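Researcher: Let's try something more involved. This one mixes different molecule types, so please make sure each is placed in the same coordinate frame as the others.
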Amino acid sequence: MAAPEIVVRLDEKFAAFDDLWTPKIVGQINDMHLKAVKAQGEFVWHVHDNTDEFFLVRSGSLTIQMKGRPDAVLGPNEFFVVPKGVEHRPVAENECEILLLEPAGLVNTGDATRGDMTASNDDWI
Amino acid sequence: MAAPEIVVRLDEKFAAFDDLWTPKIVGQINDMHLKAVKAQGEFVWHVHDNTDEFFLVRSGSLTIQMKGRPDAVLGPNEFFVVPKGVEHRPVAENECEILLLEPAGLVNTGDATRGDMTASNDDWI
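Model: All components are placed in one shared frame. Result:
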């Protein structure tokens, strides 16, 4: 699906789904997808060898655990970029809303693919 | 300057400057820069031939005029992607706060370079 040339209202996008850990594409900038995600609980440890991954919290709080590094703890209007090659696991005690930016086609579970947490990478909303 | 591996608080970044139409880099994802901008008044008509440009309004309202297309009018938490090759001019009646996403090194005035509105493209905050 091509990127729609419309004004995108994030409030409407986040109101339109409830499922957790299933990124929905809301926009495309060159070869990057901007994705809306709701998260609660623990994701799986994984790594993206070839790309950084951008996490911006919209509401709630998200902790990004990383191997060999201190946790990144994000509140609303705070972001963190997980460098490529860094194994990480997002964790949220309570439900939070996140914007992700990553290359189109990226699999959410990285190297830990085909598990229960692996979601579609082409799901526009 | 390399991208800092820290949690970035957008509220702090936007509180740290007042100048208009001068994008400040706040983060890097692969070869893309995320930039904080404050805007009021009319920018210059310009085009980026080789890249899309992402505008997300944080506060206030921004109108993106485009040649041959209807205006995109953005309020808080709304975004628009100006496709590459589309001549455009951002206009804001009152001061607004914007996040931009675009390739590192992009000149803000595109083809209309070296005018009064041309800002540094390597200004981290």
